[in-house]
């Protein structure tokens, strides 16, 4: 039974609400985070949220999660498409990790259709706006 989850937002997601609102919506990361906490608590989960624009900081956070969390939800932003280092960190920690994207990455630029982290994640949820995170919380709570 999963008890404590970690949500990681990768690069540029701190600019939600300002950044390409036609793609990512008009709401900011504070709204997203407060909704995430509410949804997690409704499912009986404790939740910590972390955002970084730096690959190494995301890797350090994944490492530190391995003893303290039961599941991870990660939106690795553009690192999704080329960071073998984040992929290896997810693989190393052996706790279930769900990949999420706000936009439908398969319906955009060709380079976004490839995720190097997908093979080491339990699954991927993409294209449901902020709802992608809420669906991932639901999925973790049922695992
Ligand atoms: C994203 C999709 C990525 O391709 C992009 O680089 C992001 C956000 C999403 O949530 O839709 O930064 O991960």
What do these coordinates show?
This protein has one domain: Dehydroquinase, class II (Rossmann fold, 3-Layer(aba) Sandwich). Helix 3 (55-65) runs parallel beside helix 4. It is α/β, with parallel strands linked by helices. Strands 2-1-3-4-5 form a 5-stranded parallel sheet, with helices on both faces. The chain has helices spanning 21-24, 29-42, 55-65, 84-93, 131-141; strands at residues 4-9, 46-51, 71-75, 97-101, 123-126. It has 5 helices and 5 strands. The structure holds 1,3,4-trihydroxy-5-OXO-cyclohexanecarboxylic acid (DQA). 1,3,4-trihydroxy-5-OXO-cyclohexanecarboxylic acid (DQA) binds next to loops.
Helix content: 25-40%
Instruction: Using the coordinates shown, work out and report the CATH topology.
Output: Rossmann fold
Measured distance between first and last alpha carbons? 7 Å
The helix tally amounts to 5
Largest sheet: 5 strands, parallel
* Number of structural domains: 1
Class by alpha and beta content: alpha/beta
């Amino acid at each position: 039974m999963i008890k404590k989850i970690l949500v990681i937002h990768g690069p540029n997601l701190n600019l939600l609400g300002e950044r390409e609102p036609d793609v990512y919506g008009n709401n900011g990361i504070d709204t997203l985070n407060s909704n995430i906490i509410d949804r997690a608590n409704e499912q009986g989960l404790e939740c910590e949220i972390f955002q970084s624009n730096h690959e190494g900081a995301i890797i350090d956070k994944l490492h530190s999660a391995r003893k303290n969390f039961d599941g991870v939800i990660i939106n690795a932003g553009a690192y999704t498409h080329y960071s073998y280092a984040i992929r290896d960190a997810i693989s190393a920690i052996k706790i279930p990790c769900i990949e999420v994207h706000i936009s439908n990455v398969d319906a955009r630029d060709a380079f976004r259709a490839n995720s190097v982290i997908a093979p080491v994640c339990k699954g991927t949820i993409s294209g449901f706006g902020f709802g992608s995170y809420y669906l991932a919380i639901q999925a973790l709570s049922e695992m």
